[in-house]
Amino acid sequence: MTAVTEFAENDRYEVVVVGGGPAGLQAALLLARQLRRVLVLDSNRPRHSATLEAHGFLSRDNIPPNELRAAGRESVQAYENAEVQFAQVQRIRRQGDGFVVSARGVRGTPNREVFADRVILATGLKELLPQLPSLRAFYGTDIHSCVVCDAWNERDERIAVFGAPGAATLAYRAAQLSRIGSHVTVFANETQISAADADELRSRGIVVDRREIDDVVGERATLTGVRTVDGEITPVDAAFVLPDFAAQFDFLDDDIRPDTDARGLVAADEFGRTSVAGLYATGELTAPGPEVLIIAAGKGARTAIAAHRDAVGL
Fold first, then answer.
1. Cis omega before residue 243 (within 30°)?
2. Percentage helix, strand, coil, to 5, in the chain?
């Protein structure tokens, strides 16, 4: 039987938010404005750490992601009933009607063990990129993962499209980019793009290359081409890669793991309520997965409203 841990008043919170991206910080902000005592625990390992600019966020277009997150933390911490701490959550377990959250401090912050009436998971997704030796050298500058976010910056360029083994929407991505680039080449095998879809793409002037990619190449941090396994280099100026993704909630005890969908995303209602009472999930952690930042923030707002309403109880 698990021992019951007693907590001092300053280590008890109405809501703990795990994750300090747009979804988590937006949720925390609205909860703070409802006078909920809220703590945000953020590992400070954002998925977009290599990205130089965030796009499409109203009033914050072209802002560096780290500046957007810093501004969000400042907004939350302006409320005396809200805290944000850099810490890596190690374990969340059930205690009574609430949860015990244990976290290891990072960047010199203290370790924490706190009690929460409710927990909101806003940890986002981990990108599983193709295993190309030089991909990381260009990722976030000339190689991107979000067409909606970054395609405008690569207009009139020669663009390559490729993905991780499980990438299932490469045909759609290539079709999107054919409106943007001067020339689009999509690298995909038959399981990623069917013969019928390949014919449709070719009818739109898109090159469908069935060869396996060996690596991406460039000069002085500028992408110049995609090299296939036969050694041939296809000249390009930019590329869009579709990763596989993995949800991040391994710190939950087995008895409070929420239901997931076929993709491994947390199954939740439209407000972020999961199959576990008092446990919510929001942002990219829930279907449909990766989204533009402003949508993730909006989902965080809806989840905060739901958590507050559930706490009121009427």
1. no
2. 25, 30, 40
Which residues are 186's β-sheet partners? 161, 208
Tell me the C-alpha distance between 37 and 227, whole Å.
53
The full set of domains in the chain, from first to last, is 9-126+244-312 (3.50.50.60), 130-242 (3.50.50.60)
pLDDT, one tens digit per residue, over 66-114 is 999 999 999 999 999 999 999 999 999 999 999 999 999 998 999 999 9
> How many CA within 13 A on the CB side of residue 216?
30
For 31, residues 6+ apart whose C-beta sits below 8 A from its C-beta are 14, 15, 17, 38, 82, 304, 307, 308
Using DSSP's 3-state secondary structure scheme, residue 63 falls into: strand
Sign of CA dihedral 60, 64, 69, 74: negative
